[in-house]
Automatic annotation (TrEMBL):
Protein role: Catalyzes the reduction of FMN to FMNH2 which is used to reduce pyrimidine by RutA via the Rut pathway.
EC number: 1.5.1.42
Natural source organism: Kosakonia radicincitans
Entry's transmembrane regions: none
GO BP, sorted A to Z: nitrogen utilization; uracil catabolic process
Protein name per the record: FMN reductase (NADH) RutF
Amino acid sequence: MSIDSTTFRDAMACVGAAVNIITTDGPAGRAGFTASAVCSVTDSPPTLLVCLNRSASVWPVFSNNQALCVNTLAAGQEGLSNLFGGKTPMEERFAAAGWQQGETGCPRLTGALASFDCHISQVVSVGTHDILFCQIVDIARHPTPEGLVWFDRRYHALPANLPTV
Ligand SMILES: NC(=O)c1ccc[n+]([C@@H]2O[C@H](COP(=O)([O-])OP(=O)(O)OC[C@H]3O[C@@H](n4cnc5c(N)ncnc54)[C@H](O)[C@@H]3O)[C@@H](O)[C@H]2O)c1
Ligand SMILES: Cc1cc2c(cc1C)N(C[C@H](O)[C@H](O)[C@H](O)COP(=O)(O)O)c1[nH]c(=O)[nH]c(=O)c1N2
């Protein structure tokens, strides 16, 4: 049975996922894009994967720099996700938030749920996408996280557990 891309996407639309801004900086310059295709691979060595469409304007920058930071968005950061997920010029994307420099030199987003600073350790191409395997060298976490999920083509906030009264 062959599955067309609409059937695939409609099914994937009901698989909820965290929203991340993936950033890079280095010899090829600074860039960032929104990604929901991010997954934990192994904790030894601590590794995650990011799927990046090779037709994205940011692809050559990530490909050359070989380092990236996965910034998992918190509730309230939906606007940033839209900015980094579109055709907005790169300077405009970065001007909309606060950034610090991580250990690899990649931008770490202020207020993110978690930031995973990584070296790209391996790349596997499948269809339209590159799977970037990323070895984590440093992690920063939000002290009071409230999550954000992309589900049914919309954002949904995940409030923290409030104490019962
Ligand atoms: N993995 C991805 O590359 C990916 C994931 C999510 C969204 N997007 C981009 O955002 C746009 C809006 O997404 P949407 O969720 O509102 O509606 P949509 O109908 O385009 O996508 C539904 C779901 O299908 C998957 N998907 C979409 N495009 C894909 C692709 N090229 N390769 C692999 N999986 C893909 C994702 O899980 C997505 O949430 C998409 O058209 C796409 O350009 C890309
Ligand atoms: C919620 C959501 C989730 C994703 C995306 C978009 C949005 C809105 N996009 C698309 C990606 O962000 C977009 O193509 C980039 O911004 C690259 O665009 P430019 O070519 O740089 O304008 C995206 N692209 C990708 O290669 N892998 C992914 O996992 C995702 N996930």
